[in-house]
Design brief:
5-stranded mixed barrel, single chain, about 190 residues, alpha+beta, two-stranded antiparallel sheet
Length: about 190
């Protein structure tokens, strides 16, 4: 019975334990940050549910600079949603406990709601803000057909040419390799 009560108490406190406060140490790009936890540990944090243009893309620097202006060096609340296999914290980052960095970026037309990766109730509000930014031609929506970061990454990977090593001019001695028959292999295994 005591274990059950302890389990219930821990289960009820778990969501509260997933939110923490920190100070933004560095804005890497529009949707990636380094945040110093109150304990001093620095976490890599990626914004949940949104995807900002990559730095080489149109509006990539604008998204990063807008995020820097808003949160760099400032206290934020980090509501942890998940941790990816690389150890990066996926989170909603709130400013002054009032609004999220995600809402600011999407509403300013500097990020997309990342469909398929945004399934919380808040995502509906961000989709509405995205529609308003698109209708007002804000940020990346000035372009009638902006390329989303996930499509841009896919295209970039597809057009990357493989590295071809040059052949050495040094002559190498050719060796003949005789393939072993299954009977030879089993005989070797018996001798071991």
């Amino acid at each position: 019975m005591r274990l059950f009560v302890l389990f219930c108490l821990l289960a009820l406190q778990a969501p509260l334990a997933l939110a923490w406060h920190g100070v933004v140490d560095k804005v890497i790009d529009g949707d990636s940050l380094r945040i110093r936890h109150e304990s001093g540990r620095i976490y890599d944090v990626r914004l949940y549910g949104v995807d900002a243009p990559e730095l080489p893309q149109t509006n990539g620097h604008e998204a990063r600079d807008a995020a820097r202006k808003l949160v760099d060096g400032k206290a934020v609340e980090v509501q942890v949603i998940n941790v990816d296999p690389n150890g990066t914290t996926i989170a909603v980052v709130s400013i002054n406990d009032q609004y999220s960095l995600q809402a600011f970026l999407v509403g300013s037309g500097l990020a997309w709601v990342y469909d398929g990766h945004c399934d919380l109730k808040i995502c509906d509000r961000w989709r509405s803000m995205q529609a308003q930014a698109k209708a007002a031609n804000r940020g990346l929506w000035i372009d009638p057909h902006p390329v989303s970061p996930w499509k841009w990454r896919e295209q970039s990977h597809a057009t990357t040419k493989p590295v071809v090593k040059k052949r050495s001019t040094v002559q190498r001695k050719k060796t003949t390799v005789r393939k072993k028959a299954p009977a030879d292999i089993s005989a070797e295994m018996q001798n071991d």
